[in-house]
Write a structure and sequence with these properties.
The structure is a single chain. This protein has 3 domains: 206 residues, 2-enoyl-CoA Hydratase, Chain A, domain 1, CATH 3.90.226.10; 141 residues, no CATH class; 66 residues, Nucleic acid-binding proteins (OB fold (Dihydrolipoamide Acetyltransferase, E2P)). Strand 17 and strand 18 form a beta hairpin. The protein has 453 residues and is an alpha/beta fold.
C-alpha cells in the first residue's frame, strides 16, 4: 500500500501543476480590441472613444484598433479624443476603414494624434480647413486667421510629436490637401496600408508606436497569436450617430414641426402630433450634440408661424414669402454664428441644398395644402346641419340608443333614430341633428328610415 501511495501523490502533484499552467496560459492570452466609429464627430463622440479605450485597458489588450469613417466635426470634441488617446495605457491604432471611408478634417487630427495610423484601399485622409458655418447670405465662412493659425500649429505639433510629415500636415489646412493611402504612405503621414484587420495585425507586428504609451514609453507591438475582441457600438451610439448628423437633425426638426401642425389640424387621431413631438425632440438633441446657433432656431420656428398665418388668413402669399425667407435665413444661421467646425465643406454644401429644398416644399405645402384644408373646414362649418345630412360614419361606442361615432376623423355624439342598438364597428348614416347630437340610422336602411323628423 505504501509503494502505491508515493507514485499516486506524485501523479496528483503533476496534474495540479499542469492545470495551473493551463489556467495561467489562458489568463495571459493576448487580445486586440477592435471598435468602430462612423459619422460626424460631436461631444458625444468623445465619450464613445473614451469607453472604447476604457474597455481595452480593463481587458489588458495588446492594442485597440478603431476603424473610423468620418467627415470631421467639432474641434473641441476632437481635442478631447486626442487627449484621451495620449492618456491611454494601451496603444491606439486609428484605421481608416472600410474601403471608401474617409478621415477628413477632425478625423485627420485624431489619426495624427494616435500611436499608429493605417488606411484601407480607396480611402482618404486630410482636408482640414477650419470653417465657421454659414454667413447670412448662405456662403460658407472660413475661420479667421487667428483660429486658422491655431489649428495649423496644433496639427504640426501632432505630426512633430509622432515623427510624421509636418509639411504635409500643414498643407492639410493651408491647401485643404487630401491624400490616398499610397500618397499618405509616401508622404510619411501614415504607417500602414492594410486590406482588413488581419492584414493590419500582420503588418503592424513588431512595429514600434509613433508616440509613447502612458506609463510604458514607446511600445513594440506583438500581435503573434492574438485573439480579436470586437467592441460593438451600443444602441444609443447608433441613434446618436444618426441624429447628430446636421442634415438629419435639420430634417427631423422640420418633419416634427409638420407632424405637430398636421395633428392640430386633424384632431382626434393623435398619431401625427405624437410622432411629430418625438421627431422634433430627437432633432433638437442631435443639434445639441453637433452645436447650433439659437438665433437660427428661433427664426425657423418664426417661419412656421408665418406659414400657419398664411393658411388661416387670405394674405395672397405675403406670409408664405415671409416664411420662406425667414426659414432659409434661419436654417443657414442655425449652423453659423461663432461655432468652429472641422468638417468637410461638402457636408455643409449638401446641408445648404437640403435647407432650400425643404423650405420651398414647406412653403408650397402651407400655401396650397393646409390653406385648402382650412378653407374646406370653414365651408363645412358654415353650411350648418345640412352639410352633415347623408354623411357616413362608424360607431366607436355602441348606440343604445346614444353613443359615439366617428365622421371625417372627428368624434360626434350620436343617437339611433330607430332606438335599436347599433354595435361598434357598424357604419351609420346621418339623417338629422338635435343640437350637437347626430341622429343616425344603419347604413343601407330604407329611405323611409332616413327621413328627418
Amino acid at each position: 500500500m505504501g509503494k502505491v501511495k508515493g507514485p499516486l501523490i506524485l501523479l496528483v502533484m503533476l496534474l495540479l501543476l499542469a492545470s495551473s499552467s493551463l489556467v495561467s496560459a489562458g489568463g495571459s492570452e493576448k487580445k486586440v480590441y477592435v471598435a468602430k466609429f462612423e459619422g460626424v464627430i460631436t461631444s458625444y463622440s468623445a465619450d464613445q472613444f473614451s469607453r472604447y479605450i476604457d474597455a481595452a485597458e480593463r481587458g489588458n489588450a495588446e492594442a485597440l484598433i478603431i476603424e473610423i469613417d468620418t467627415p470631421g466635426g467639432s474641434g473641441e470634441a476632437m481635442q478631447e479624443i486626442i487627449q484621451r488617446i495620449k492618456e491611454s495605457t494601451v496603444p491606439v491604432i486609428i484605421y481608416v476603414y472600410p474601403p471608401g471611408a474617409i478621415a477628413a478634417s477632425a478625423g485627420t487630427y485624431i489619426a495624427l494624434g494616435s500611436h499608429l495610423v493605417a488606411m484601407a484601399p480607396s480611402t482618404s485622409i486630410g482636408a482640414c480647413e477650419p470653417i465657421m458655418g454659414y454667413s447670412a447670405n448662405g456662403s460658407i465662412v472660413k475661420a479667421p486667421e487667428k483660429i486658422r493659425n491655431f489649428y495649423i500649429a496644433y496639427i504640426k505639433s501632432l505630426a512633430e510629436a509622432s515623427g510624421r510629415n509636418m509639411t504635409a500636415a500643414e498643407k492639410f489646412i493651408t491647401e485643404d490637401l487630401s491624400l490616398t493611402p499610397e500618397e499618405a504612405m509616401k508622404a510619411h503621414v501614415i504607417e500602414i496600408t492594410a486590406y482588413d484587420v488581419n492584414d493590419l495585425l500582420k503588418k503592424a507586428n513588431g512595429m514600434k508606436t509613433k508616440i509613447p504609451v502612458k506609463g510604458r514609453g514607446y511600445v513594440t507591438l506583438n500581435f503573434t497569436d492574438v485573439k480579436i475582441v470586437t467592441l460593438e457600438p451600443s444602441f444609443k451610439d447608433e441613434v446618436v450617430r444618426y441624429i447628430s448628423d446636421p442634415t438629419v437633425a435639420y430634417v427631423l426638426i422640420n418633419i416634427g414641426i409638420l407632424g405637430l401642425i398636421f395633428g392640430f389640424l386633424t384632431p382626434g387621431w393623435h398619431v401625427p402630433e405624437t410622432v411629430g413631438a418625438i421627431l422634433l425632440v430627437l432633432g433638437l438633441i442631435g443639434l445639441g450634440y453637433f452645436g447650433y446657433n439659437a438665433a437660427g432656431l428661433i427664426l425657423v420656428f418664426l417661419s412656421i408661424i408665418f406659414f400657419i398665418a398664411e393658411a388661416l388668413t387670405p394674405t395672397f402669399g405675403l406670409f408664405t414669402v415671409a416664411g420662406v425667407v425667414t426659414m432659409v435665413i434661419g436654417g443657414i444661421l442655425l449652423f453659423g454664428g461663432g461655432n468652429e467646425y472641422l468638417i468637410q465643406t461638402s457636408t455643409f454644401s449638401t446641408l445648404r441644398i437640403i435647407i432650400i429644398v425643404i423650405t420651398l416644399l414647406l412653403g408650397l405645402f402651407f400655401a396650397f395644402g393646409v390653406a385648402a384644408v382650412v378653407r374646406d373646414r370653414r365651408r363645412k362649418a358654415q353650411t350648418g346641419k345640412e352639410e352633415m345630412i347623408g354623411e357616413v360614419g362608424k360607431v366607436v361606442q355602441e348606440l343604445n340608443p346614444e353613443g359615439m361615432i366617428k365622421i371625417r376623423g372627428e368624434l360626434w355624439k350620436a343617437e339611433s333614430k330607430t332606438r335599436e342598438p347599433i354595435k361598434v364597428g357598424e357604419n351609420v348614416r346621418v339623417v338629422g341633428m338635435r343640437g350637437l347630437t347626430l341622429i343616425v340610422v344603419k347604413e343601407g336602411a330604407s329611405p323611409d328610415e332616413g327621413k328627418e323628423v
